Amino acid sequence: MAREIGIGTISLGWMGTLHTRAYRRLLDHYPECELRPRLVVAADTVEDRARDAADRLGYEGWTTDWREVIEHPEVEAVSIAAPNYLHKEVAVAAARAGKHIWLEKPCGRYPSETYDIGEAVEEAGVVSMIGLMYRHVPVVEYARELIAAGELGEITHYRGYFLADYAADPNGALTWRYKLDGAGLGVLGDIMPHSVDMAQNLLGPIESVSAQRETFIRQRPEVPEGMGTGHFVVEGGDMGEVENEDYVGGLLRFESGVRGTIENSRTCVGPHVRMSFEVNGTRGALSWDFQRLNELQLYRTDGTGDRGYRKVHAAPGMGDFDRFQPGAGISMGYDDLKVAEAERFLSSIADGRQRPASIRDIVSTMRVVDAMDRSCNTGRWEKVEEPKPARAPDPRVATGERRMGGDE
């Protein structure tokens, strides 16, 4: 019989709601999980959303003050789906209160804030789970196994990209996501962590980078602080300045000697969410695209005379696929990946064995992002460095109280 664990959730936009659904579905797919989620309390500064969480999502209580979630004596684990500018304050407070945390990337506005969260989590000895869910895709886990087993020979090339169109409309509202004191970095913080984590998950540490950035849409319609959640269009109104980047592209050197490229955009017309990679070795190659989540393209030079990729479908035996579907050709979806993430989070709490992706994984990722940020400024190759002690706040971030607003 699984014991109950009290759950609190902070911010109830799309991602906070998705965390909640993942908890509710957990035992349907992982009945042997030792912990049974109990939805104790949810917080959002928008009172209607907070009330809705209690009524519709099944929380026992609600509040408009995130601190009450952390201080609640029956909350053992906290889901943090708040905007970037609250990540450090909320996550550090939760860790110091002895609460386990499930936190969405990028874990702060800048790498320095990620490092501070990492220190707090390590000092408190709590379990962490970071929202880098693409690594849990069954065919991605299969690809990792093939690479590790040497099935592709010596790896020589890597290409990773995340091309999105969520900010392609110039009338997209100028929310916190486009401000230095709200989001901090632009695509370097918003989607590059997914690309970097995937590259290192498959091929190991990145040693150095050379990167460039651009802001293609430099002004957007202004909206009141805290208005809306996610991405929405505003017709007319005053225009304000976009303060962070729309695009980043770069070259990679892995510690193993592999060379690679990486590219991210939030204003790329055509692709919607093209999170993809391609790996080439001396005896084969493989590629994957999130928009065809359940398919891996695999090429082998195995002496058969075949020349070209073949499609490999997700199937039982690959990762957690059979937790969700009985056979190849029946598709898993994005929400399923968050259920898998919830299972790894609660199982890590239950037995004390930390599953990835943990705070250490995002710290490793943001070290690469940090080097890319520096390279964009210097125009030179930059080494991936260890976090430096006694870090000062990033000078690009203004201080001051902000409303929670909405998450992704």
TrEMBL record:
<dbReference type="Pfam" id="PF22725">
    <property type="entry name" value="GFO_IDH_MocA_C3"/>
</dbReference>
<protein>
    <submittedName>
        <fullName>Gfo/Idh/MocA family oxidoreductase</fullName>
    </submittedName>
</protein>
<dbReference type="InterPro" id="IPR000683">
    <property type="entry name" value="Gfo/Idh/MocA-like_OxRdtase_N"/>
</dbReference>
<dbReference type="GO" id="GO:0016491">
    <property type="term" value="F:oxidoreductase activity"/>
</dbReference>
<dbReference type="InterPro" id="IPR050463">
    <property type="entry name" value="Gfo/Idh/MocA_oxidrdct_glycsds"/>
</dbReference>
<keyword id="KW-0560">Oxidoreductase</keyword>
<dbReference type="Pfam" id="PF01408">
    <property type="entry name" value="GFO_IDH_MocA"/>
</dbReference>
<feature type="domain" description="GFO/IDH/MocA-like oxidoreductase">
    <location>
        <begin position="141"/>
        <end position="286"/>
    </location>
</feature>
<dbReference type="InterPro" id="IPR055170">
    <property type="entry name" value="GFO_IDH_MocA-like_dom"/>
</dbReference>
<dbReference type="InterPro" id="IPR036291">
    <property type="entry name" value="NAD(P)-bd_dom_sf"/>
</dbReference>
<dbReference type="GO" id="GO:0000166">
    <property type="term" value="F:nucleotide binding"/>
</dbReference>
<feature type="region of interest" description="Disordered">
    <location>
        <begin position="382"/>
        <end position="408"/>
    </location>
</feature>
<feature type="domain" description="Gfo/Idh/MocA-like oxidoreductase N-terminal">
    <location>
        <begin position="7"/>
        <end position="131"/>
    </location>
</feature>
